[in-house]
Amino acid sequence: MQENEPKNVLEDVSCFKLPDHKTKIVCTLGPASSSENIIRKLIMKGMNISRLNFSHGNFQDHKDVIQKIRNISRELCIEIAIMADLPGPKIRTGKLETEPIHLSKGDEVILTTENVRGEGQIIPVNYKKLPESVSPGNFIYLNDGFIQLECLKILKNNVYCRVITEGPLSSNKGVNLPGIDIDLEPVTENDLKVIDFALDAGVDIFSISFVEKAEDIEKVRNFALKRGKSVFLIAKIEREKAVRDIDRIIEVSDGLMIARGDMGVELPIQNVPQVQKELIAKATMKGIPVITATHMLESMTENIRPTRAEVTDVANAILDGTDAVMLSGETAVGKYPVESVEMMSSIAKASEEWRDRTRWGIERIETRICGVEMNIDDVISHHVNEAVQRLSVDYVVTPTMSGQTARRISRFRPSTWILAFSRYPLTAQSLTLSYGVFPVYVKKLETDWENTVLGKMKEWGIYQSGDIVVLTQGQSPGRPGGTNLLKILTLV
Ligand SMILES: Nc1ncnc2c1ncn2[C@@H]1O[C@H](COP(=O)(O)OP(=O)(O)OP(=O)(O)O)[C@@H](O)[C@H]1O
Ligand SMILES: CC(=O)C(=O)O
Ligand SMILES: [K+]
Ligand SMILES: [Mg+2]
């Protein structure tokens, strides 16, 4: 395992603040959330991971935001991970002269691949092969599928369409051609440039858009390795191909994102909930974090209160077993970014309390994990979970190199916090994504790690005589995957 520079992680954490919920919250930062003031509030209200969508904004903007997040994270002493979301081969509309424009039912519009600004009925699109890819009768979707066009005819660089479903359109919105084979590699040249930039800025968590196969993930990992960096790679599942090849993709991914925005156009929209449930179950079994994304509190982009359906959607994703929930437009461009995170946190808290009480869905997870062949890590994590349920355990404490042990325990969604100590910055960073895990980066974690950890707990004032702590341990703390001991301590 490669050791990256600890640019992006709190060093020698001297404070300890457990949130009141264990579900992790990802916020997309954008124009509505790039000021220090808003970033500070988002962190205080529960953001764990900042997502920078490199489909928008420029490198300088992102660089400034990265610096601000780091400064404020240090000031508040709260670990925040930064995730760079790669643009991928997403086809988008170009720049419109005035925006938004309204496309009305029955209108005729022209999608052009020429390098022009959108005006009147002309809408530029950034995919040169559009005219040869579509045929009359095909449907083309704009803006996450909210606008539906039917292709009428193709003339040179122009695709003439009729508006079937109307709606507003702005610059740089997604164009989807479900069912049509598009000749674009999932990891583009532009993506590699973004990775280059992000690695230099100390970002090493990436979400890879429009993944189709395991090789897409490997391409990014190898690219980073050549630059001497370890990376944490989240496969964004938003294409039918990825859903079909999910088992191979999971094998090589460090995490999954259920990218429901594009998924809801690329797949029949009514299949999204089932895919969500299956992906969460698969990721949980594998012990990798899964993020449920897009439209979670969409109406809060404009309104201070969400709909009942949205609140229920967030709660249901948590009850399905998601590690993290994500906000997109709500925090990037919305009117109420801070209120949106606050709302997420309160839904998470209520859902988790109810689940801890009723054990809703938990037995299903346990049965699944214990129903197949178990390895040593599985057995240890299963017994940690047993201990948490039978004794009134105050903390689960685990030293971790790759993060595996902490993630395996987290799979059971225990009601106790898992304090995960690592001397690997990327491990500490990436554990911010896992349900119920509180990662701590420590510079030194040698054979006497138990004293280091208990010392930290004393320093934080959470060491109380009579507390029960479950510790896991490997015989050689330097080796990954070697956890083979479980210790139950009553602190004196
Ligand atoms: N850094 C940014 N600068 C400007 N606008 C942004 C930025 N990040 C997000 N947005 C805006 O917020 C909207 C929602 O964000 P989101 O991250 O879901 O992007 P998207 O373009 O819809 O799709 P995808 O996530 O598939 O790239 C975007 O459509 C865009 O208008
Ligand atoms: C997040 C994202 O890319 C989507 O939902 O499509
Ligand atoms: K993107
Ligand atoms: Mg997408």
Architecture overview:
With 492 residues, the protein is of the alpha/beta class. It folds into three domains: 6-88 and 186-358, TIM Barrel; 91-176, Beta Barrel (M1 Pyruvate Kinase, Domain 3), CATH 2.40.33.10; 362-490, Pyruvate kinase, C-terminal domain (Pyruvate Kinase, Chain: A, domain 1), CATH 3.40.1380.20. The protein has 17 helices and 22 strands. Helix 1 (36-45) links the parallel strand 1 (24-29) and strand 2 (49-53). Helix 14 (376-390) packs across helix 15. The mean pLDDT is 93. Residues 209, 236, 238, 259-262, 293-294 line the site of pyruvic acid (PYR). Pyruvic acid binds next to helix 8. It comes from Methanosalsum zhilinae (strain DSM 4017 / NBRC 107636 / OCM 62 / WeN5) (Methanohalophilus zhilinae). This is Pyruvate kinase. Pathway: Carbohydrate degradation; glycolysis; pyruvate from D-glyceraldehyde 3-phosphate: step 5/5. Residues 21-341 form the Pyruvate kinase barrel domain.
CATH topology of the largest domain: TIM Barrel
Percent of sequence in beta strands = 15-25%
What is the number of domains? 3
Gyration radius, rounded: 23 Å
Q: What is the highest CATH level, the class of the largest domain?
A: Alpha Beta
